[in-house]
Amino acid sequence: MKMSPTKVGSRGFVFTFDDLSTPEVACPTNVYLIDGKKHIFLCDTFLGPQSMEQIIAFMKRELEEKPLVIFNSHYDYDHHWGNCAFSKYEMILSSKFCYERMAAVGEAELKLYEKWKRGNVKIVLPTKVFEKDYTFPDDGVKFFHSPGHTHDSSSCYDEVDKILFAADNVEEPIPYVRSDLEGIQTYLKTLKGYLEYDFTTLIPGHGSISDQRLLKTNLSYLANLLDENDGSLNLLLKDDHSKAIHLQNLYTIAEEYVKKSKNNLAIKFLQRTIEFANKEHLLDASIITKLEGKISNLKK
């Protein structure tokens, strides 16, 4: 089926894929293209060469030929498997941390998540890396390291159209957490840093094209999660999807503390997981029993 991109600003196009969505939960994935003055920039490449076919056709049909810069926002497979679709490019750009993670786990994840491959996927690593940022002054485009969703995450800012591509650092309705409270503090710092950029449009890695309101909702959620402000959290958890994400986040934090042998903190967040699950009727009694057993083992 032919895909029509959404035009954003004067020179941007967002291609949205629904491959990761289920009947229960929508998970649209955005690939952002900027038709710059001297380069074409492609932010993330989704699940493989088949995903990129229509984008390649669009570039050939609609855009003047220019050097292509591919940007990988982070190491998760659904953001770089399409790198192999391109035989000609000036560079594949990422943070050095992203390169390191892709090199370390790329082949293993290719096997682990094989069912999501779209076409014959081969892992193609970034060819140019940065630690802090990388700028294309003539194009008015900046890429910068922005740890949050993952430590290796980076973002893209189009200063011409005032558009921020935050990738998975900002999500709809609330962000997924993949760290303990210390990692959440870093995540919050990154999101607050976004407010220093003059942007009117925000493109998340997954979800609807938005603006600063979505960023501020994500900020509020993480801040209240960090402060254990359950009253304010409840106001943000408006539907079953957000409640399910919050439950997963509580359990993720607990598991991170288990890995670090910080048992008291692990127990605390397992207890919060159970309390929230019971309050919202989110887990079967058998799963609650397993969580309670885990708490008992940690207390030994």
Could you give the topology of this structure?
Blueprint: E1 6-8, E2 12-17, E3 29-35, E4 40-43, H1 49-62, E5 68-71, E6 91-95, H2 96-112, E7 128-130, E8 133-136, E9 141-145, E10 154-158, E11 163-167, H3 181-194, E12 201-204, H4 212-227, H5 230-236, H6 240-259, H7 263-280, H8 285-299
Parallel strand pairs: 4-5, 5-6, 6-7, 11-12
Antiparallel strand pairs: 1-2, 2-3, 3-4, 8-9, 9-10, 10-11
Task: Give structural notes.
The protein starts with 5 loop residues before the first strand and ends with a helix. It folds into 2 domains: about 5-225, Ribonuclease Z/Hydroxyacylglutathione hydrolase-like (Metallo-beta-lactamase, Chain A), CATH 3.60.15.10; about 235-300. The model has no long low-confidence stretch (mean pLDDT about 95). The protein is globular, with a radius of gyration of 20 Å. It has helices spanning about 50-60, 95-110, 180-195, 210-225, 230-235, 240-260, 265-280, 285-300; strands at about 5-10, 10-15, 30-35, 40-45, 70, 90-95, 130, 135, 140-145, 155-160, 165, 200-205. It is built from 8 helices and 12 strands. The strands form 2 sheets. It has a 7-stranded mixed sheet with strand order 1-2-3-4-5-6-7. A 5-stranded mixed sheet has the order 8-9-10-11-12, with helices on one face. By secondary structure, it is α/β, with parallel strands linked by helices. Strand 9 and strand 10 (about 155-160) form a beta hairpin.
